[in-house]
């Protein structure tokens, strides 16, 4: 193998197509603070994603932190332990106590049947994650939120372009937060966004991501510097021209993996989210007890052959030092999430991954 194969690699359009954007930015001398490329990308993303308003950010974590501030969330927030650590970190940054509940065994999204038992008088919101880009049970979650007067903020870092039964999954909840990190389906090198339901909310979020400024001399809130630069926005505009092509290629790779692995005993491919729904952001498999190797042993075998999958998500957020002392972090309450964290392995999937490499990966998995 000439070079290592990682679980994902950023899709980069031809450099020659990016140069005119850079020249325009250089000529304008506007590098940040909501410049022309920033505004164009916000408008283009609203059209593509089927959302009304979007606020761009320097990264998805800052967007999560700001979303909680925008809705004035306090106290306790019910969330999932099966996610990237930024989900819970955004709560701690706001002085909020995370309350972990278990996940559904089929989707690995937050299990709605576990939510009500976790609600206390201090609960003010629910923060689910569309894990691997598969939509949560948005209707069940919203029903609970309405019954208990709770806010819902979706960590939609994986869910760019994902559709559910009624259109864009990003339109559910009070706010949805995207990540445009280099490893995501759509990236701006680093970046993120908050989907806003109305113009008033977007205005508040735009103020919060700019230190709380309203005009030149007035500050109305303890905001943060979360603004996306013109360079990142320009890359996003260029990426958007190729996104459908990239998604189509991911779909082909997803289908090939499923075909090649369907008869491998002990290897379970998570349920396909379905046509017109998935963005094929990840390809997770579960290494079950009847497979000859443990998940970690298979992980090492692939690495020895130049393939670098990812144990995504391992360990659980609830097992990190800053969270494991919480009552809700008890493994007895998180049996499904704990099992998944010990079984799941995400295989490489990105537009430039060649068919021959997918076949080599699956042959390595099957050769036991």
Describe this structure in words.
The chain folds into two domains: 226 residues, Aspartate Aminotransferase, domain 2; 124 residues, Alpha-Beta Complex (Aspartate Aminotransferase, domain 1), CATH 3.90.1150. The model has no long low-confidence stretch (mean pLDDT 95). The strands form five sheets. Strands 2-10-9-6-5-3-4 form a seven-stranded mixed β-sheet, with helices on both faces. The chain has a three-stranded antiparallel β-sheet with strand order 13-14-16. It is globular. Strand 3, helix 4 and strand 4 form a beta-alpha-beta unit. It is built from eleven helices and 16 strands. It is 35% helix and 15% strand.
Summarize it:
With 368 residues, this protein is α/β, with parallel strands linked by helices.
Topology:
Layout: E1 5-6, H1 15-28, H2 36-49, E2 53-57, H3 60-70, E3 76-79, H4 86-93, E4 97-100, E5 123-127, H5 138-148, E6 151-155, E7 163-164, E8 167-168, E9 175-179, E10 192-196, H6 199-208, E11 213-214, E12 218-219, H7 230-240, H8 243-261, E13 267-269, E14 283-287, H9 295-304, E15 307-308, H10 335-343, E16 344-347, H11 355-366
Parallel strand pairs: 1-15, 3-4, 3-5, 5-6, 6-9
Antiparallel strand pairs: 2-10, 7-8, 9-10, 11-12, 13-14, 14-16
């Amino acid at each position: 193998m000439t070079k290592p194969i990682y679980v994902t690699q950023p899709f980069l359009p031809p450099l020659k197509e990016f140069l005119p954007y850079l020249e325009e930015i250089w000529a304008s001398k506007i590098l940040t603070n909501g410049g022309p490329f920033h505004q164009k990308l916000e408008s283009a993303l609203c059209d593509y994603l089927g959302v009304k308003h979007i606020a761009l950010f320097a990264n998805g974590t800052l967007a999560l932190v700001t979303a909680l501030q925008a809705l004035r969330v306090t106290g306790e927030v019910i969330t999932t332990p099966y996610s990237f650590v930024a989900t819970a970190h955004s709560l701690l940054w706001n002085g909020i106590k995370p309350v972990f509940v278990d996940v559904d065994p089929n989707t690995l999204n937050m299990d709605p049947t576990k939510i009500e038992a976790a609600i206390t008088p201090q609960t003010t919101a629910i923060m689910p994650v569309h894990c691997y880009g598969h939509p949560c049970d948005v209707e069940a979650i919203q029903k609970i939120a309405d019954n208990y007067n709770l806010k819902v903020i979706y960590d939609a870092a994986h869910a760019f372009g994902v559709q559910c039964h009624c259109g864009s999954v990003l339109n559910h909840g009070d706010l949805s937060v995207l990540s445009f990190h280099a490893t995501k389906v759509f990236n701006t090198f680093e970046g993120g966004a908050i989907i806003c339901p109305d113009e008033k909310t977007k205005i508040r979020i735009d103020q919060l991501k700019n230190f709380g400024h309203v005009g030149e001399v007035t500050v109305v809130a303890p905001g943060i510097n979360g603004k996306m630069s013109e360079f990142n926005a320009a890359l996003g505009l260029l990426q958007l021209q190729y996104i459908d092509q990239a998604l189509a290629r991911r779909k082909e790779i997803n289908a090939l993996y499923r075909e090649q692995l369907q008869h491998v005993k002990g290897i379970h491919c998570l349920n396909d989210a379905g046509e017109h729904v998935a963005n094929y952001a990840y390809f997770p498999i579960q290494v079950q007890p009847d497979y000859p190797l443990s998940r970690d042993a298979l992980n090492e075998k692939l690495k020895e052959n130049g393939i670098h999958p990812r144990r995504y998500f391992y360990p659980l957020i609830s097992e990190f030092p800053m969270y494991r002392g919480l009552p809700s972090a008890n493994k007895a309450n998180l049996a499904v999430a704990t099992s998944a964290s010990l079984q799941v392995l995400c295989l490489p999937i990105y537009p430039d991954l060649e068919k021959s490499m997918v076949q080599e990966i699956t042959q390595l998995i099957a050769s036991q």
